[in-house]
Amino acid sequence: MGVVLLVLVCFASCNPEEVVAHTNNVEIDINIKQVSAGYVNAEFSTNKKAFYLSGIHPVREDIDDIQKVAKQFMMLALDSAYVDYLYWRNKQLQQLTPFVTDFASYALQYGNTNQYFTMLKPNTEYWVYAFAVDVMTNKPTGNLFIKSITTDSVSRIPMMFEYRVEGQWDYVYPKDTLGEINSYTPWVGETIDSLSLREMGYEKPAEYFLERFDEVYSGDYKRILYGIYAHENNGEGDGTSTTKYELGHTYYTGMSSLDAPVIYPLDKNLYDIYRFTWMGDSTKLYFTPVDCTGGEW
Predict the structure, then answer these.
(1) Residue 64 neighbours by CB distance under 10 Å
(2) What is the rounded CA–CA span in Å between residue 149 and residue 55?
(3) Helix segments in the chain, DSSP class H
(4) What separation in angstroms does the CA of 151 have from each of 2, 55, 59, 155, 216?
(5) How many of the other CB atoms lie within 10 Å of CB of 151?
(6) Does 158 sit behind a cis peptide bond, omega within 30 degrees of 0 on the bond before it?
(7) How far is 285 from 269, CA to CA, in rounded Å?
(8) Residue 249 φ/ψ, nearest 5 degrees
(9) What angle do CA 33, 36, 40 make, to 5 degrees?
(10) How many CB atoms lie within 10 A of CB 216?
(11) How many CB atoms lie within 10 A of CB 235?
């Protein structure tokens, strides 16, 4: 009666886990909790326990009624998710990862979820969608559930950055207006020697950071960050920066929200730029927005 018992093996060496998943008459409610310039926060809830694919897609002007092509849309969305999974799985296998999860565990949702869709374009119409999936056949089942939203033209989500330097390490704490860690808004950060800035001919640090932040927003996705971040400034770090602290040198560290394209002048509610002099492994510094240089020397 629309109920199947699925045996999903999340990892090759795990014991099989029985999961009840309905495939018939599954209804999915989409509750849009927040819309900003660059992300949407949505809650998904089901009337029955079921696996489903959820996502977001720019509204297509050539489609006057998405429900008329619901089957094609669902198949396209599921195929795209599976291609993404195969690419990810291939990379894991190349790295000889011992346990690689299955498609359902990687791409599908189960039960009630709260999700963020980020790196969206401002002032753009999107469809937030969901539909149940039969993981035995890897095909959509039932109806397409969809909500239309339009992102804001500018960011209305203030974001501040507290910053700590301790020895060769630095730490960034992106926070909201309540002082809580913001783990869902994408952001970018970078540290640069003041000598390098002057050699490159920038009139002030803000010009450099504006240029770099825009480059990241425009496509340097490996440098996009979420939540708390720690980095060792030894010239290697985690591969996203080649900064190596040198004794007595002055540095600038800039951080900005990527909720929307970074524009000039920088919005003081979305960025912080700090200046400090590194005095060796004994260095211990802590900065809050009141210490922001405003992008000046």
Answers:
(1) 8
(2) 13
(3) 70-94, 103-107, 194-199, 205-217
(4) 37, 15, 12, 9, 20
(5) 21
(6) no
(7) 22
(8) -85, 150
(9) 50
(10) 21
(11) 11
Give the tens place of pLDDT for each residue, 143-188.
999 999 999 998 888 999 999 999 999 999 999 999 999 998 999 9
C-alpha separations of 280 from 111, 124, 245, 250 in Å: 51, 48, 8, 12
| Cα–Cα distance, 60 to 65 (Å, whole number) | 10
As given in the structure block, the two tokens for residue 25 are 């008459």
Q: How far apart are the first and last CA of the chain?
A: 70
Structure tokens given for 178:
């309540």
CB 192 within 8 A of CB 276: no
Q: pLDDT tens for residues 15-38?
A: 445 577 888 999 999 999 999 999
Closest CA to 22 of 1, 45, 49: 49
The type of residue at 70 is A
Contact 241, 18 (CB under 8 A): no
